[in-house]
Structure formats: structure tokens, C-alpha cells
User: Fold this.
Amino acid sequence: MNAIAQDAASQLEAAARAARAAAGQVARAPRPVKDLALRTAAAALRARQDALLAANAADLAAATGLTAAYTDRLTLTPARVEAMAQGLEEVAALEDPVGRVLAEWQRPNGLVMRRVAQPLGVIGMIFESRPNVTADAAALCLKSGNAVILRGGRESLHSAGAIHACIAEGLRAAGLPEAAVQVAQTADRAFVGAMLKAAGLIDLIIPRGGKGLVTRVQEESRVPVLAHAEGLCHTYVHTAADPAMARSVLANAKMRRTGVCGATETLLIDAACAPTLLPLLVADLAALGCGFRADARARAICPELPAAAEADFATEWLDSMLSVAVVDGVDSALDHIRRFGSEHTEAIITEDATAAAAFLNGLDSAVGMWNASTQFCDGGEFGFGAEIGIATGRLHARGPVGLEQLCTYRYHVLGTGQTRP
Amino acid sequence: MNAIAQDAASQLEAAARAARAAAGQVARAPRPVKDLALRTAAAALRARQDALLAANAADLAAATGLTAAYTDRLTLTPARVEAMAQGLEEVAALEDPVGRVLAEWQRPNGLVMRRVAQPLGVIGMIFESRPNVTADAAALCLKSGNAVILRGGRESLHSAGAIHACIAEGLRAAGLPEAAVQVAQTADRAFVGAMLKAAGLIDLIIPRGGKGLVTRVQEESRVPVLAHAEGLCHTYVHTAADPAMARSVLANAKMRRTGVCGATETLLIDAACAPTLLPLLVADLAALGCGFRADARARAICPELPAAAEADFATEWLDSMLSVAVVDGVDSALDHIRRFGSEHTEAIITEDATAAAAFLNGLDSAVGMWNASTQFCDGGEFGFGAEIGIATGRLHARGPVGLEQLCTYRYHVLGTGQTRP
Assistant:
């Protein structure tokens, strides 16, 4: 290990040990204490708006070579500071997920078994240069009783530090340990490597960002990972689709926002309805500025569409672009999705309940929708109040990750002196 | 990669691809089909008892240098074959965990959100040379709709193969793909290495065995791991314990079976009751053949006890041996447990409900018990019908892992054409 990596490892270890010590206090903090911390932090964000904008200006001045979209995500404005403050207050208003009795039953020997929600412990969150994620993730982790080490992108260090100061003020006001929410104050990439090696010190790594980041984390991490990877989402227009519904839902699923992971990237349409319906769908989307990559059967109906290469069906466009393929019913659609999909979110548009059931039951994806826009795959839309991301793995939590999903459980077994025969 | 490792990697990849293809069919198989497979396999185990015992005799003849306990676990008898067959039938009699609606709610926009239990996919199970685990694990994975690749100890290859033939017969009879349950037919350790690298092909690795095996898997695996690690369980006798209950529960928790992970390894006893109660507890256990390692405060009361080194409190004895320490109330007991415990199972013996609540809420362990033997930490005792082991991590599942814990979930979102604003 070189000196820089050694230094990063030492920094991380100190941070993680402090987080572990703090985690016990946060885990057992009653709801009013956690909510006081969040509301005080919100007030601090508003009170220190000028300092936040100045820190953000320093980040923006130092950043070079960023895309316009990246710069936009990095930029704070008075409205965005207010949105962060409101976000903290919204999390404060959510029910406390800790201590919920998830199940309870009694055994013939009289033992009462109770499954109780409990915080995970110490979470390590790795994300890109989006200052608001610092506030959102801190709030969700704190409310769910976890300690967290936040490692944002190197371009947002000043902004993250200024936001963190507000959260620390909230923790102090509530009598909670400041180490419960820590922000890495280093641009050193070795710090991320140290986080990924910290099995036993960090209980869960949540990577949120581009495919490169998530893949690196999944490959390197010795700590369990709750991955938020790509959303290669499909909307399947079944023969028995209501044409007007198919048009409005697909336009929304593709074009409402193209950069979100729940945006539809591929349209699958049944051969039986494609000749009449596909031209309408294409015209709607083209009018909204969408481009296309279509397979040969789709181009036989709409010859003006550019031809798709096979790789296009494996591409998460995150842009005004749609892959299009003609299929032959539910099984054919499922085959395509299994081959190219990312097990995130897929929708079927149909009036045929049997076809819908076959589609939903045939999917392996985290979320299957019937007659709804894939863009509903969102913690807020699910009613979770807020989310830290969309989990795309199969373990622990799938789909939107809110306060409940940031908890694990334990059992309480209540006896009266039972011994096992 | 050398030739052997290359060969093992090729074997594993072929097995995993076949398992992935089979997983979809098993995941969607209705309960009667799965149960038919299990009952047919049970009948085959009984019908082929002679072949099983002959295969097992070949394993035993080839094995050298095994401990008596290891040889005992490897040995099949007519009674053990019958027990395996009954085990398969018991799993057949359990409710199907797949497709259970875990939660359902409606959003203001009319969307119905439904959380549904779903199999994990392809499970890789790595365990020691215990033939019965082949049958048990196959049954639990099949009933929970998963495909499984079983890799038992190298000493049990013949036995595992003979058991697998019975399970394959069951799968065939039910029209299920044989690749749904596969048994590694190689003693090559590189096969395990290949399993641990098979991210994307295997969804979950379950290691079950000694600390060395589990640690290796946790360190090397690129696939998510549901670890079944050590159980360094504590029984804490609180000042307000009923002495008779403390005596009977501790004797059971330590000595009913000493080799199980739920056996108590350390007694913590409050200073206030130790002078009168500790001598009784020690006498009870000594009469049962238990040895002791005691701290200075315990030895001040029972000078005949051997002195404990600090490392003794970090030792999972799995034997007739008990570490003993005197503590000063609930917080002191919790401090000891956090320092030396393995987050498996801990019990408090007390008549004081407030102290019990403080203890249970202060634990980070998977299972906390009040006035009950730690040996109740078992899937059967929890009412799960059968278990594949006890999970000691914090993600996905904690404590006994039964059919429900071998499932993940997905969402079905039922709409009527909703689009997101």
C-alpha cells in the first residue's frame, strides 16, 4: 500500500470506528430526538444559505471538463437549498421504521416469537457530485437509526462539507453523536477503496451513480452491497392493449424524464397490433423529440425508423431514444426481457387480465407494472416518502429503498423458563 | 488459471447456466408439482437404501484422518436414510412460500402496489461432508422455487451422488428439469473458487460449516453471501433471576447439545446474585460434565474454577466448556456481549420486565431471548418446519433460514393507465 492509500485507509478506519460507536446511540434514539436533529438541520440549511452557495461556487469554479448535465447536478441555487431543507423536514414527518413488530406468533411450548425491525448499523454511501444526495442520504440513514459515511464526488467536496456542517448542528442540538453522519473530506479515490475493504466496520455499501461506479463497487467490495445499477426498462404493448392508453402511457414512460432509471428504454409490441398501433406510437414520440432504433419487423411497418443493432437493445439510453422490437405475445416479450433487461422495471399494457398475470408472474424484475408508466418506479410514488435509490439486486431489498429497506430485523423470543427437550 | 482450475471453472459455468435455465421453471412450478418431486425423492431414498449405504461405505473407506465427530457426521445408517426421507416429506407438507402477498396498498392515484414473495434464483450451497445436508438443502431450495448447486465435502462424494440420484428421480417424476438440483461431482477445490466468482450466474452463496470455510467464502466471494458463521452465545443471569429457572435454563442452554451453534458458550452473572447463585450453577453444570474458564470476580466466589484468558471469552467452545464472567447489570452485560459476541443469540434470565426490555433492545444480535434456552435458536423451534442454517449477517435474513428466507420479493403495480405527472 502506498502512502496515500495508507493515509486513506487510516482515515476510513477512524471514521468507521467512530461511526460504529455512534451507531448504537442512533439505533436506540427515540423518534423525537431524531426528528429534532433533522428539523434543526433543515433550519440550519436555510440560515446558512449564503455559505452553502459560496461553497458550491468554489466547487463549480474548481471543476473542469464536466458535461452540462453533470454541472447542473452539481449546482446549488436558493430553490435547491430550500428543497433540501424541505426534504429533511419530510423525512422527519415519516413514521419511525425502527422497532416495528413485523411478525409475532406463539409456539405450542408457549414461547412468543417477535420479529422486530432494527437498523442495519453503519452504512457507507458512495455517490456522484450531487450535493442534495448528501442531505437526502444523511436524513434517511439517521431516521432509520443507522450511522453513515458519505462519500460524494470529488467535485462537490466544499458543498458537501457545508451541508454536513448543518447536519452536524442538528445532531448536536438533539444530543446525538456527530459521528453518526460523516462526510469524507478527501478527494482521494483510495478512500473509496478503503470503504470497500472495511468488512466488519461498515455493514452495507450503497453505491449510487453510473454503471462504472456501481460495477467497480460490486467487483471490489468485501462489504455487502445494495447496488443501484442500471434500469433497462421495457414497456410491452400487448395485442389487447387499449390504443389510447398505450399511447399516453408509453409517451410518459419514455419522455416524462429521460434521465431517470425508471424511464422506458425499449418498446416491445405484439405483431398482431403493431401494423396499426406502432405508427401512432412512433408519431407521438417523434413529436416529443424522441429518436428510435428499430428491429427489422418494426421497420417493415415503419420504414423511416433507423435500424437497431443488437447492442442497442442492451443500452440504457437515459436520453430521448427508444429501442423498438416486434414480438409474438407474452412469452416472446418475456424472452426478450430476460435476454436484454436489467431486472429493474417492466410494464405491460393490455386489457387482458390473463395476459397481464402471465407477464407479471413471468418476470424476474424487481417491479412489474400493468397499465402504468414505468416512471412510477420511485420511492415517493410507492408511498415511502423518500428513497435512497432503486435496488436492482435480489438480496435484502428490491426496487425503491426507503426507510423500511434501510432496516434489518432481529427476533425477540419471550419465554417463561422454557428448556429445549 | 491452471488446467485444473480452468476445468473446474468450465464445469461450474455449465452447471450454473443449466441451473439458471431450470430456475425459471422451478420458480413458476405450482406447489403440487414441487411436492410430488419431494415425495417421489423420499420414496426413492427408501427404495435405494442399500445403494445409499454402499455409496456411503465407499466414502468411509476412502476417508482418512477424520475426527470421530466428522466420521459420525459422514456416516449413513438405515435410520438416517429414513430420517432424510421423512425430512423431504416434511418439507413437502410445508406451505409454499412463493407468491405470498407480503403487503398490498393503494396510492391516491389509484395504483395498487403489491409486494409478492419470489424465489431468489440460483443458490450455491457449500457445506461439509454431511450427506443429510444434500437432501435437506435440495428440498428447501426446491420448495422455495430456487435452483441449487450443492457442493459438499470431498469425503462425501459417493453418498451425495447416490442421494442426488433419488432427488433427480423426483424431479423427473414431476416433470421438472433435473438441472434444478445439481451436486458437484468433483473433489477439486477450484470448483468452490469458481462458484465464488460466478456473479451473475449464481445469485446467492450459502456457506455452512466451520469458521475457516465461512471466512474464506466471505473474503473471496463476488456473489452475495448468506453467511452461517459462529454462534458465540451468551446467557446472562440478571440479579432478579428466578434461581431455579436460571439453573434449569442454563443447564439446557449449555449442555443439551454442546456442538450446535445455539449452545451457550459464556455465562454472564450479576455481581449482586453471583455469591449465592453462581456456586449452584457451577455445581449443576459440573455434574453434567462441563468445564469452566472463569474471570477473577467469578473465581473470588468459586476459587476452584480455572482462570479464563481474555481469548477464552472470544472462543466458541462447541464443547462441554463454559466461560464465566461477573458483570454489573444490563449495560455491563451488553458491553461484554458487544465486545466478544458474534451477534447470534443471547438470553437474559430475569423476573424484571424492565431489565429484560433494556437487554433485548440493547442487543445487536439476530436473536435475543428472555427466560428461555439459547438452544431454541433453530428453524424447527421457530416454527419454520425446517431450516438451511442460522444466518449471522445483517442483510436479507437473520437467524433461522427457512423457506421464507430463501425467497426475495418483487412488486406488482396494478394500474388503469396512470401516467406520472
